[in-house]
């Protein structure tokens, strides 16, 4: 959240609630950063137009452009969705749940589950951030270390040094290399930070229901313990009524989780599908840089760093999406492991209904294409390999 706030990515409604002018100032700052990122994206599209309209298409330069243009396009779409009221409701639900846990939850086990999940997420985000910094450094330093290459421009052979990105600038990059390099550094740092910090928010929202399912699984597996806790607070009710209260609250909590995932799918399903499509192309274009030309050791380092962060990013998305499905299925196992057979038919019927509902499954959607899972992650890798082989064959 702190990283996202630095670039105006977090909805302003949740910040500076007691300071109206600060909140409005942050809202203006958020719009400015969005416009700046949009201008960077437009410059990549203009450069793409220059590349495809040339007499001979430079495959290496085209691959370099396609590394960032589709990715930044998805970033704009994702951030536009984050400004919608539906996404704000998801964030509001998470924040309200967190406040409730801080104020009223006195269950050490549930608090431990939430804290452990939060620590795991924070650790992964820090690893992601560290990878991003290393990748940025490798790409920004590379032009200073790589030798210039001879290029034919208007029948003249000139020495051209590579630049980190493939973007259009309103001046000659060869004649004004220092100015072009500074612009590229600014674009690289701002663009990658804007994209990555926005993904931190999305990953946090995506992970939230898995944490809730872990807590729900713990409650169902230890139903007798929570039944006794209710009996301690409400001594006038029977043991069976206490079991019914535990199950009823569990069913209500599960319905809230199901609705949360449904709302997320409705909002982000198409965006995640587009990201799925561009991810394999993105990875292939990064690999094409080292397969279609002779490379230096610095180029190899930067490409490897980029591939590592790309795979880690995708793994986070699809691992947590897969975990959602697995944890939902494990609820049926957890309740079956409890002593449900010692209760009345009414309690047994309620447990049966929970088990039946879990057979339906709970999954994050990729639009109309299917569902997010580790198998889809492998599909991206397979598609990237196919793209690379195609590029290598037409080199």
TrEMBL record:
GO terms for cellular component: plasma membrane. It is found in: Cell membrane. Keywords: Cell membrane, Membrane, Olfaction, Receptor, Sensory transduction, Transducer, Transmembrane, Transmembrane helix. Coiled coil: none annotated. The keyword Transmembrane helix applies. One of its GO terms (molecular function) is odorant binding. One of its GO terms (biological process) is signal transduction. It is a multi-pass membrane protein. Its main location: membrane. Pfam families: 7tm_6. The chain crosses the membrane at residues 32-54, 300-320, 377-394. Belongs to the insect chemoreceptor superfamily. Heteromeric odorant receptor channel (TC 1.A.69) family. This is Odorant receptor. It comes from Dendroctonus ponderosae (Mountain pine beetle).
């Amino acid at each position: 959240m702190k990283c996202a706030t630095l670039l105006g990515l977090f909805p302003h409604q949740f910040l500076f609630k007691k300071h109206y002018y600060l909140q409005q100032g942050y809202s203006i700052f958020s719009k400015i950063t969005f416009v700046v990122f949009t201008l960077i994206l437009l410059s990549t599209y203009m450069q793409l137009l220059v590349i495809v309209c040339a007499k001979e298409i430079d495959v290496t330069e085209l691959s370099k452009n396609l590394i960032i243009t589709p990715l930044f396009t998805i970033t704009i779409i994702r951030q536009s969705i984050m400004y919608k009221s539906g996404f704000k409701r998801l964030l509001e639900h998470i924040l309200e749940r967190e406040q409730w846990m801080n104020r009223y939850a006195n269950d050490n086990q549930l608090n431990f589950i939430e804290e452990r999940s939060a620590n795991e997420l924070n650790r992964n985000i820090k690893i992601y951030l560290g990878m991003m910094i290393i990748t940025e450094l490798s790409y920004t330093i590379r032009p200073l270390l790589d030798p210039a290459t001879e290029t034919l421009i208007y029948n003249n052979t000139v020495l051209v040094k590579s630049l980190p990105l493939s973007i259009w600038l309103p001046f000659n990059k060869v004649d004004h290399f220092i100015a072009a390099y500074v612009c590229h550094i600014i674009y690289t740092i701002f663009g990658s930070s804007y994209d990555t910090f926005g993904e931190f928010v999305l990953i946090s929202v995506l992970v939230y229901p898995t944490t809730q399912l872990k807590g729900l699984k713990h409650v169902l597996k230890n139903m007798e313990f929570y039944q006794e806790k209710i009996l301690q607070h409400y001594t006038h009710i029977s043991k069976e009524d206490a079991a019914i209260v535990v199950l009823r609250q569990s069913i209500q909590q599960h319905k809230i989780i199901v609705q949360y995932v449904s709302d997320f799918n409705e909002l982000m399903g198409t965006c995640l599908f587009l990201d799925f499509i561009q991810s394999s192309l993105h990875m292939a274009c990064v690999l094409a840089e080292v397969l279609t030309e002779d490379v230096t050791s610095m180029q190899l380092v930067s490409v490897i760093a980029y591939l590592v962060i790309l795979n880690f990013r995708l793994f986070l998305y699809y691992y947590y999406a897969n975990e959602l499905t697995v944890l939902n299925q494990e609820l049926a196992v957890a309740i079956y492991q409890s002593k449900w057979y010692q209760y009345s038919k009414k309690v047994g019927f309620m447990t049966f209904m929970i088990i039946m509902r879990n057979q339906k499954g709970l999954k994050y959607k990729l639009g109309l294409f299917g569902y997010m899972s580790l198998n889809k992650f492998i599909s991206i890798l397979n598609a990237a390999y196919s793209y690379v082989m195609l590029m290598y064959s037409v080199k």
